[in-house]
Amino acid sequence: MESKVKEKKTAKQRFKIFIKILLIIIAVIAVICGALACISAIGIKENSNFIDSIDAVGYDSQLEPVLDSDGYYSFTTDDDFKILHLTDIHIGAGFLSVKKDTMAINAVAAMITEEKPDLVIVTGDITFPVPFQAGTFNNKTSAKLFAQLMERLGVYWTLAFGNHDTEAYSYFTREDISRLYSSEDYPHCLFQSGPEDVDGYGNHVINVKNTSGEITQSLIMLDSHSYVDGDILGIMWKYDCIHENQVKWYEDTLNSLKAENNNVMPKSLAFFHMPLQEYQDAWYEYVDNNCQDTENVQYKFGKAGEVDIVVYPSEYNYGFFDKAKELGSTQGMFCGHDHLNNFSVEYKGIRLTYGYTIDYLAYSAIKEYGLQRGCTVIDVSSDGSFDCRQENYYQDKYSPVKEKETVVFDNYYSEAD
Fold first, then answer.
1. SS3 assignment, position 91
2. How far lies 373's CA from each of 298, 321, 332, 389, 412, in Å?
3. 44, 245, 399, 406: least buried by Cβ within 10 Å?
4. What is the pLDDT of residues 182-233, one digit of tens each?
5. What does each C-alpha distance from 352 to 13, 236, 281, 333 come to in angstroms?
6. How far apart are CA 280 and CA 332, in angstroms?
7. pTM over 0.90
């Protein structure tokens, strides 16, 4: 009897010890989480204060968009229209990314301030809520920081979503972030969520018109989504693409704009995050011909800095490029995603261009390299024609608020061409 009582006491003692240890572990975790949350909050506040210290862009005469009866924003000018294409900003807004976020904000502000564009278009990955690099799952905080920056600069802008903007493990969905960008807090953001019966968020159009009301250029943003085939975390690089009903929306939208435009199909440019398969087809054909132009491919500028397959499109293709050829409206397409690719080629009559990226965070040690960082300037003429050029961030003409970091101008991969 006595031994049974002792066994019961021993069991109770063990249970009490287990509970104490468990509570200590929980307390330690809570303290660590609290400390990290405080560090993150301090870092976010520092970058928010930094943004507030940046001056607005000094426009001589800034174009003001209006919301037309067709539901799309439009700018009116008889002069050239200047677009600044940015991509892969990768703001983490966590305790691990504070300094790198400052660098990204610094670079973006400097280039926009110098270029004074009529419109900024970002082709995705504004945010990077990857916890082991950023230190957070919260993708709304980084989206807010970028929107705050653009509002502070006083520049009109929009975006097409990238795969990292809303990861499967992020706190907030594409719908949530779309609602944020569309809020009254950011009147300079011209992003629209797009039709509910079309896949993705942010399928929308911004038009440029002359004073006669004719559309001289339609700027078409498309959501190229994230991952497919069960690769919800993106670790197998199974990327998605522009879906079939988006291709139909693109066709219907251009035909509607044509009807509004005295039955003349407007010229257009398309912006999305993931490269199309045709980017890969064009580059491979060019390289296979000893880097000489072919009947299909005419090289314009830039290089492919990624290794292995070089261009990383989806395995799927729902015919967006073919539809663009058929309709004869879209003259050029712009994407991001592959951070070390910045080439521009004309392929079967359509200009395919990778944007310079900003990324200080996603690629390992990328902050130490400078060849790939910058912006793409797109000049749209009053007759609807366009040309584009890439501008490296480390030129003297870009004067950031904070001193530029020291970088090397070697290839990120030493074996890259």
1. strand
2. 24, 27, 21, 14, 11
3. 406
4. 999 999 999 999 999 999 999 999 999 999 999 999 999 999 999 999 999 9
5. 71, 26, 11, 5
6. 16
7. yes
